[in-house]
TrEMBL record:
It comes from Salix viminalis (Common osier). One of its GO terms (molecular function) is acyltransferase activity, transferring groups other than amino-acyl groups. This is Omega-hydroxypalmitate O-feruloyl transferase. Belongs to the plant acyltransferase family. PANTHER family: ACYLTRANSFERASE GLAUCE (PTHR31642:SF189), TRICHOTHECENE 3-O-ACETYLTRANSFERASE (PTHR31642).
């Protein structure tokens, strides 16, 4: 059997960079002053998402040229993406967050490093030090926090990184991929690849709201939306956490799929089987001393609702159009049950999200002002395709999120070492003893 997983190799602990220039950039044409409605899904993700996109050196596009092209393209697409040059505000009349499209500007930073790309470690393994390749431009917040900041950092080898910080309220992963496609197209002198659909009222609650399903995956809070909050599932643990990344190869995933088949013709998705495997390991590593077989573990994971609504949302919808699916099982089932049953539970969680279920969840948010809630969340960057974006200087060598140590979130991201990106890296942060147990179970359930 091929190598089951690889732990995190040594990584550069510090990455020193020098900021050459930081400024605000503005739409290159006048845009309409307006307020943009934010859906109940947008409302609960008022925090920044940071990604880094690494590029090999290209003699036709030295980093200085890339920085100029990115800046010019950014100014151009701030016209169709006018909300990125706006500011978040709380509307006291409606009690909701919205975006004031006031043209206050987005951020742009040019930086450099004396390191080479080879010196900063294996790019496939995201490194907390990569946070220095992203900037939130807090120094320019006198008119409010910019909703999008792009940083271009050059390396001594001629390679470079494009780091992007955006408010999650502006994009989900799918619409951010569209934004990158458009940025790349305009940087190459082409028209927008996919003009964005900015009508977020397509996901407005019904009037009156009608909650037609129970929503155990959602938790009511006693605080108004629009205040600076981290939902319970995103709480950063105060305890010391070990940080490891496990690699599942395409062969590992194929083996798991074979074990999960209930018939020779059964079709099983890679996401569902990987999620079931992680769920079992994470839940059973929770109780170190005495395992309560009747304890219920609930896993959360995102489902794209664009094609599930009636009528479907435009694929170009620029806001957040994902809902949190869930699956629950007792620890006894997770320990003793066949993986086929766990995969079925994960699949059913996604199937549950029909048009009516999605509308019910949105309406629940209108009434209850709450957040997704479960034991932990699988956040998948595996199939988003950020490293497939075709810039004038080529596709990224690798794209990854800036990682953070939170034991209630497990990240999946692509493994470019594997053929056709079919492998997956699993990022886990847990207290030391729980990590040891998770690791043992991770190997054990792959080998049986």
């Amino acid at each position: 059997m091929e190598n089951q997983c690889q732990e995190t190799p040594p990584v550069l602990q510090e990455l020193e960079i020098t900021i050459q220039k930081s400024s605000l950039v503005f739409p290159d044409k006048e845009t309409e002053r307006k307020s943009i409605f934010l859906s109940n899904i947008d409302q609960v993700v008022n925090f920044n998402v940071e990604t880094v996109h690494f590029f090999a050196s290209n003699e036709d596009f030295p980093p200085q040229t890339v920085a100029e092209k990115v800046k010019n393209a950014f100014e151009k697409i701030l016209v169709p993406y006018d909300f990125l040059a706006g500011r978040m505000k709380f509307n006291t009349n409606t009690g909701r967050l919205e975006i004031d499209c006031n043209g206050a500007g987005a951020g742009f930073v040019v930086a450099s490093s004396e390191s080479t790309l080879d010196e900063i470690g294996d790019l496939v393994y995201p490194n907390p030090a990569f946070a220095n390749l992203v900037n939130s431009l807090q120094s320019l917040e006198k008119d409010g926090k910019p909703l999008c900041v792009i940083q271009v950092t050059s390396f001594k080898c001629g390679g470079f990184a494009i780091g992007i910080s955006t408010s999650h309220a502006t994009f989900d992963g799918i619409s951010f991929k569209t934004f990158l496609d458009n940025l790349a197209a305009v940087a190459g002198g082409k028209p927008l690849a996919v003009p964005p659909c900015n009508d977020r009222e397509l996901l407005a609650a019904r009037s009156p709201p009608r909650v037609t399903f129970p929503h155990p995956e959602l938790l009511k809070l006693q605080t108004h939306l629009g205040q600076e909050l981290n939902p319970p599932v995103f709480d950063a643990a105060q305890e010391a956490l070990d940080f490891k990344i496990f690699r599942l190869t395409s062969g590992n995933i194929s083996d798991l799929k074979e074990k999960a088949k209930t018939s020779p013709s059964a079709r099983i998705s890679g996401f569902n089987v990987v999620t079931a495997h992680i769920w079992r390991c994470k839940a059973l590593s929770h109780d170190l001393e005495v395992q309560d077989p009747d304890r219920v573990s609930t896993i959360l994971y995102a489902v794209n609702i664009r094609p599930r609504l009636i009528p479907p949302l435009p694929v170009s919808y620029a806001g957040n159009a994902v809902l949190t699916a869930y699956a629950s099982a007792r620890c006894r089932e997770l320990r003793e049950g066949p993986i086929s049953k766990l995969v079925e539970m994960v699949a059913e969680g996604a199937k549950r999200i029909t048009d009516e279920y999605a509308r019910s969840a949105i309406d629940w948010g209108e009434i209850n002002k709450g957040f997704p809630h479960g034991e932990f969340l699988i956040s998948s960057w595996w199939k988003l395709g950020f490293d497939e974006v075709e810039y004038p200087w080529g596709c990224p060598r690798y794209s990854c999120p800036v990682v953070y140590h939170r034991k209630d979130i497990i990240l999946l991201f692509p493994d470019v070492i594997d053929d056709k990106n079919s492998g997956v890296n699993v990022l886990v942060a847990l207290p030391k003893k729980q990590m040891e147990k998770f690791e043992t179970l991770f190997h054990e359930y792959l080998s049986v």
